[in-house]
């Protein structure tokens, strides 16, 4: 199985790291800034095991195996080695591309032919494009997400703008459907799927004196997650003292927003992260 393979990016505008397993971006640090993505110090770094942090690629299902057959949570794409497509430095940053195509192992888990292509731009802003292609002769339904772990000074002091008025399913309360009132603050374990949500989210972080913006196209679901104390204690790849430093704001197409692609059809989702200094 060997070790994990990494792609390191160092340009004038930013540094970054991508793991070939899962095409998982694990670092984006704009020049003269602190890292923007959280990566657990306890993360497993073994082939086939999910990395806790950065931006995991969720495909072809979100969450537990929908058929309860014991297949991996959040799908298999993040556990498989993707093929690098090359690295290119340009005026707006360094671009990295990777691809995952169906194979015997994926077909045994999910009987559809597909291609995933991920393109990351490491610049003063960060852009991630995930293309899903149906390479088969029949339509398929899939869920996708870019499961972004943001690094924050203290999750208890951040203010999350841009969700007001949206409806979410509370994963901690039997998927009860709730309307978000306004600015979201985290004061306990939080696990919410906002549906039909396409707006920009701003994470205002007074500790780090910065605001992270999350803009997206091709995504109708937004997930907000923080494990807080008890769930963190149940995760062996997240240290007990790490939960205040992370906040997941994920962009995808989940549940009622899931994708159905016809033969040959390609869907693109783009997420753009920006930084404003307070
Ligand atoms: O982010 C939403 C979520 O589905 C949470 O319920 C939690 O399970 C998280 O993803 C992490 O999942 P993972 O399989 O990476 O431990």
How would you describe this structure to a colleague?
With 278 residues, the chain is mainly beta. It is 5% helix and 44% strand. It is built from two helices and 21 strands. It has helices at residues 104-109, 228-234; strands at residues 6-10, 14-19, 24-30, 57-58, 83-90, 93-101, 114-122, 126-134, 140-142, 144-146, 149-151, 159-161, 167-170, 176-179, 190-195, 201-205, 210-217, 221-226, 246-253, 259-261, 266-277. Strands 4, 10, 11, 13, 14, 15, 18 and 19 form an eight-stranded antiparallel beta sheet that branches. It has an eight-stranded antiparallel beta sheet with strand order 5-6-7-8-21-17-16-12, with no helix packed on it. A three-stranded antiparallel beta sheet has the order 1-2-3, with no helix packed on it. A hairpin with a 5-residue loop joins strand 13 (167-170) and strand 14 (176-179). It is globular and about 50 Å long. It starts with 5 loop residues before the first strand and ends with a strand. The relative contact order is 0.18. The mean pLDDT is 97. 6-O-phosphono-beta-D-tagatofuranose (TA6) binds next to strand 18 and strand 19.
């Amino acid at each position: 199985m060997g070790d994990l393979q990494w792609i390191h990016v160092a340009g004038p505008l930013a540094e970054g790291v991508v793991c070939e397993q899962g095409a998982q971006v694990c670092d984006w640090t704009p020049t003269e800034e602190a890292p923007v993505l959280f990566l657990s110090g306890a993360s497993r770094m073994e082939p086939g095991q999910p990395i806790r942090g950065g931006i995991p690629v969720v495909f072809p299902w979100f969450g537990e195996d929908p058929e309860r057959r014991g297949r991996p949570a959040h799908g298999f794409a993040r556990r498989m080695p993707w093929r690098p497509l090359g690295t290119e430095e340009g005026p707006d940053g360094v671009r990295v591309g990777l691809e995952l195509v169906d194979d015997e192992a994926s077909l045994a888990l999910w009987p559809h032919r597909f291609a995933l292509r991920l393109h990351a731009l490491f610049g003063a802003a960060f852009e991630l494009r995930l293309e899903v292609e149906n390479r088969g002769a029949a339509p398929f339904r899939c869920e996708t997400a870019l499961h972004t772990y943001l690094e924050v000074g203290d999750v208890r002091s951040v203010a999350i703008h841009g969700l007001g008025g949206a409806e979410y399913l509370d994963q901690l309360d039997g998927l009860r459907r709730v309307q978000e009132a306004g600015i979201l603050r985290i004061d306990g374990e939080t696990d919410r799927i906002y549906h039909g949500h396409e707006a920009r989210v701003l994470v205002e972080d007074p500790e780090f004196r910065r605001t992270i913006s999350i803009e997206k196209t091709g995504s109708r679901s937004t997930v907000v997650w923080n494990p807080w104390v008890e769930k963190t204690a149940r995760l062996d790849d997240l240290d007990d003292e790490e939960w205040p430093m992370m906040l997941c704001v994920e962009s995808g197409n989940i549940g009622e927003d899931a994708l159905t692609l016809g033969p040959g059809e390609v869907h693109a989702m783009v997420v753009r992260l920006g930084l404003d200094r307070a």
